[in-house]
Amino acid sequence: MVTRKNPIFDTATTLGKLLGFLGVSAICGVLVAGLLVPAAAVSGSAASGSIEFFDTLPAELQVDPPSQSTKVLAADGSLIANLYEENRTKVALDQISPFMQQAVIAVEDSRFYDHGGVDTTGILRAVVSTARGNKQGASTITQQYVNNVLNANLAAEGNEADIKLNGVNKGVGDKLREMKLAIALEKKFSKEQILEGYLNIVFFNRDAYGIEAASKLFFSTTAKDLTLPQAALLAGLVNSPSAFDPITNPDNAKARRDLVLGLMLDQGKITQADHDAAVATPVEPKVTPAQQGCAYAATAPYFCDYVLHLLLNNPAYGADAQERTNNVFRGGLTITTTLDPKAQAVAQAESDAAAGANPDKWGSAIVSVQPNTGKITNMAQNTSFLPADGRFDSQVNFNVDKLDKNGNDLNGMGGFQPGSTMKPFTFAEWLNEGKSMDTNINASVRKYPQNFPWKNTCPNPTVGWYDARIPGSFDLQNSDEGYYRNMTVLYGLMNSINTATFASAAQVDLCGIQKIVDAVGIHGGLPDAEGNPNPQVKMTTLANLIGSTQTAPLTMAAAFATFANDGKYCEPIAITSVTDQTGAQLPAQSSNCKDAVKPEVARGVAYAMGEVLNGGSGSLIQPRLSTKTNFPVAAKTGTNDTNGSTWVVGYTTGLATAAWFGDPLGDQKRPGRNLTINGKKYDAIDGYMIAGPMFSKYMLQMAPAYGTNPFIAPPSNMRGGTPPKPASPSPAPSSPPSTPPSPEPSKNDNGNKGNG
Fold first, then answer.
1. pTM above 0.70, yes or no
2. Does the pLDDT at position 536 exceed 90?
3. Which CATH superfamily is domain 85-279 in?
4. Whose CB has fewer CB within 10 Å in the chain, the N or C terminal residue?
């Protein structure tokens, strides 16, 4: 059975339309009475009750700044990315085309400058029109602004379900409240302020809130530069963004635009000639797609993502995660970072070139910091943040820790085994204890049994041993057989000899090495079993002397920067300034530097690592980066025992850089052997082979811009040999040479196997 409508109350009938007319007229009467006549002066209980209801409605509207896009900027002010929930950029009224102002008034509220927030003439006209079967709205621009503000406030609070939309879930009470708030708003703000607020908040498209974003999206221009036909089209779009979308519905958009132009002509806002020329203009959008987030960063998406995580993890931006998200994505912040776009471009190019032709998804990364400030200048890796044809895509940042010090996510890989790049810290403790780098040591010793008498004044016990006589263990190994002999401590570091590092460590306090490692900021990049997010790298665990614990490239770059900065360690920073949409300053980062290593020790390490490049393992890097042929630079190569993680970390006086190549997948267990990278076959990759050229080419291009002053020479007492001393109970070779020979540079980077 078909349900029939009641013919008396059916609004499609003449009587129904009349009753509808009378009902809305009654609302208008209540409104006018409430506005113009004191309640006590109105006779009749019904009228009095209606006015009392109206009087109880709130008259105050909290006009919070609308949600705006946050901008992430490089150090030079160039844009890295936009972050937003609603793509909006607020502009002043004088930065909005007069055509746009006139067009929206013509189509949405022609009596805008004549009413006080509610247009009773318009309401009655709409009632009559609706009674005749032609539905017509009557909301003024002020009322629409009120509605948008209310809804924006609800969205900012996370109460999207309570948002009220005309014709959907808005009742008579809602309309009365909107009217009263509109009247109160007109008393508080000028017409120009209301029009500016409206044009900045109104919805044009899911990717465009406010006139500036709409201008860029649809016409790749600014609100100030909108032409007459463009402005008329956008003004017409407000009524139904979907139906009149010029991209998906160009015919509807043109018809609506031409209607707006006709209204502007009728209201004397444009001339007939202007009207005709605009109507004759085809609808031709010039779209600039909105790209939200760090994934679409113009440069440095991983650095941008790192900055975003720093903000979202910072309690200064909100008491909880939701409040911080609202502040960052809705607050219209301007975040100025430390990124140098030129350094980033060079780093990205070198990272891509190093591991470009790479179907097996091997990774490369380069990150740099300024030694005297800790400012991160670049952060690059050979992946794309979004899937792309022929590219290795990853959302994980190879350069940073997995978690920050408070246990909050950084979206980082958590680091890689640093291998021999950890050896300079044992060398630093050797110098710190007043020993000469020219002292001879016995690098033939390969057994360090369980009862070896290590000196360790730390509470952490000494862990591990190297002794093939014990089942499951093995003797300490070098990559090449020719280096199990006496040599100077300097020669051992230059050529990255594992047994030389252990022979040095056997004559110093392991706790001293620990203190240096801690002071220069080295920590594990992955949480440990106890839940420590950035655990200590325990140098009393012997395998860590040659780089067993996964450590992030950013951590290594900042640690080596300490030696460049005459022993002062500066924490890495990425954010120099944050301002809100009013221009007020919010908490940012500032340089936090402290004494970490004695200046003379830092100078001694710089000298030794300069020799790594001049005549040691680093001299194999091509193009060769030598202190003798280019500018003063110090560096150390590194390779773990599987060849799956390879490094060069080094510095000039003005820039410290970590370059890494290796396995970024899964548990990082793939051996770096029998690889083909960029068409070149590698039996086993070593630090100097791929990471080395990355480092060298990058530093050759960028280091001069940051300063390449000579390193201060170490004190004379750090040079000058002493007789060799036994490093363990194992006997020295029968006839050790008093001065080690100087064969071709060694490749003894690898070796972090430990026991215990």
1. yes
2. yes
3. Biosynthetic peptidoglycan transglycosylase-like (1.10.3810.10)
4. N
